[in-house]
Structures are given as structure tokens and as C-alpha cells.
Amino acid sequence: MRSQAGREQATGGVAAVDRALVILSVFADRDDALTLAQISQRTGLYKSTILRLIESLERHGYIRRLPDGRYHIGPEPMRLAQLYQQSFRLADAVMPVLRRLAEECGVTASFYVLEGNMRVCLHRVEPSSIVRVSLHEGDRLPLDRGAGGKVLRAFSGAKGELFESVRKACCATSFGERDPQTAAIAAPVFGVNQALCGVLNFSGLREQFTPKHVAKLRRQILAAAALLTQALGGDASMFGTRAGAERMAA
């Protein structure tokens, strides 16, 4: 863990604000509350620095001090979260990612959601190339065929060796399952409390999906799924080393 001096040297913007946000970020769902020593250990900040920052955070409702001296997240983050939820539209997060992926990968980039025993194409962007997969937003597809269906079933609790492997890899592929001429690769996207929001899906002509190209697409789709999961309030750490250096900027 870096020293406080190291943190300050590497920090841009307003250092005090950055340090205050670091303090807020160390609280996790599993924590009832944290002691000053625990906050110091997790942030690498001096206790004296933490106390000064916590005084401001407490005054504005971001942190509250319990009678036993421990600290907990205050009510203000909940108010901001509610404002965010009221103003947030899924398309605002998903569409820019789909547009970028369609252009960079040369495949059709889609976002599917689970609806009963079907998957519905909620958002879709075609590449600029002439060859495209003929599907449209609003189309309903079965869950028992295609990479997107496998992922939605796997992360909705389906049992079996196939779905265990999908959960382990955080993605699935399909070759000619829905249409003999097409192939696809898909990865899950999660939101708040790690709820399954939908599935990110790349599709194209089967001949495009060579082993080398599939390996590249897998890295790109995992990076994009991690990006969207983070944007939607989920925990992207599950993609971990799978996404690796392929994480994309918004």
C-alpha cells in the first residue's frame, strides 16, 4: 500500500477531495462500521488526516460516528443514489459502448434482457460493413439457443456443467445454433447488488469467428462487460484478470 506522500504525489485534481472519496470507498456491504485504525489501514492515510476529513464528511452527512467511536456511511450517499436512479437511463450507458464496439470489432453489438423464457434485444448497433446480422431492437429470441441465451440462463441459476463453465468464464460462445451462418459471443452485465441487468452480445457471420478472432473478441467483450457493470453500479471485480488490460474508457 502506498504511503500518504506517495498518494498525494500521484493524485490530480483536489487532493483533499480525492482523499475524502478514498475514505468513503473503503466501506463495504459486509461492514457494520469501521474503526479509525481500520480506515487508516485500508486507505494508507494517517489517522490525523482521516480525522480532519471525516469531520467535514460527517458535517455534510456522508459519514456518521457511532456512540462506540466507530464510523459508518451516512444518509447523504443514499439521497444521491436516489437522484441518480431517477435520472439514469440504461441506454445512456449501453449505447455509447455498443457503437464503439461495433466499429472497433466489426461485429453487430447488442444488449439483451431476460423476459420470461425469452431474451429480448433491447439495444443494437450494426457495424459499418455491408455484411450484417439481420435482427432488430425488440426482437425476441429463445433462451435455449445462442450465446446470449446461455449467459442469461447461467447467471439466472441454471444448473449443469455447461452453465457452470459459463459462470466460470463469464462468457459463452455459439456457432450456428440459432442460424447456421452466424456465430456469437456474449458476457453478463450486472447492476446494483450484483443483479443481472442483461447480456452484452457480439454476433456476425460464422466464417468471421476464427479461433484468433474469437480470442480477441472475448477480451473485448469482457472488458466492455466490466465497464458497463461498473457504470450500472455493479461489482466489476468478477471479470478481474479476464478483462485485464483490455478495459476501455467510456
Care to describe what's here?
The structure is a single chain. About 35% of the residues are buried. The chain has a six-stranded antiparallel beta sheet, sandwiched between helices. A two-stranded antiparallel sheet has the order 1-2. It has ten helices and eight strands. It has helices at about 5-10, 15-25, 35-45, 45-60, 75-85, 90-105, 145-155, 160-170, 210-230, 240-245, and strands spanning about 65, 70-75, 110-115, 120-125, 140, 170-175, 180-190, 195-205. The chain is elongated. The model is unreliable at about 1-10 and about 240-250 (pLDDT under 50).
Summarize the structure.
This protein has 250 residues and is α+β, with helices and mostly antiparallel strands. It has helices spanning 4-10, 15-25, 36-43, 47-59, 76-87, 90-105, 147-154, 161-169, 211-231, 240-243; strands at 63-65, 71-73, 108-115, 118-125, 140-142, 172-175, 182-190, 196-205. Helices cover 44% and strands 19% of the residues.
Order of helices and strands: HHHHEEHHEEEHHEEEHH
Mean pLDDT: 84
Strand order of the largest sheet: 5-4-3-8-7-6
* SS field, number of helical segments: 10
| CATH architecture term of the largest domain | 2-Layer Sandwich
Beta-strand content: 15-25%
Q: Helix/strand/pairing class, anyone? A: alpha+beta
Question: Key terms for this structure?
Answer:
250 residues, Arc Repressor Mutant, subunit A, 2 domains, two-stranded antiparallel ribbon, 8 strands, disordered C terminus
Task: Please outline the helices and strands.
Layout: H1 4-10, H2 15-25, H3 36-43, H4 47-59, E1 63-65, E2 71-73, H5 76-87, H6 90-105, E3 108-115, E4 118-125, E5 140-142, H7 147-154, H8 161-169, E6 172-175, E7 182-190, E8 196-205, H9 211-231, H10 240-243
Antiparallel strand pairs: 1-2, 3-4, 3-8, 4-5, 6-7, 7-8
Helix pairs in contact: 2-4, 6-9, 7-8
